[in-house]
Amino acid sequence: MRVRLRGELRLCPRHPRTGRRELDAYYLGADEPLEHAEGRCVAIVHRFDDDDDKLVVIADGATPPGDDAILAAVAFQETPGAHSIIRC
Fold this sequence. Notes:
The chain is mainly β. 9% of the residues lie in helices and 32% in strands. The protein has 1 helix and 5 strands. Strands 1, 2, 3, 4 and 5 form a 5-stranded mixed beta sheet that branches. It is globular and about 30 Å long.
């Protein structure tokens, strides 16, 4: 699923929640901070202890990372064991 990381974001079809609202996202593969970007949602970081899941987005044409690579990329923000990866 393609998403635009500015404004309204569409949910991944396998996302456990319904309804429309903005979601935060991790954009993997960028070498510098971005103000906006577009790409593909390849996974969701589903948090067990709150309702603040995060999309995992990569650039079009990029190879989707494995779960271990996603976990390593989001480790700066996510508590180990407090979330799961849901694939889109």
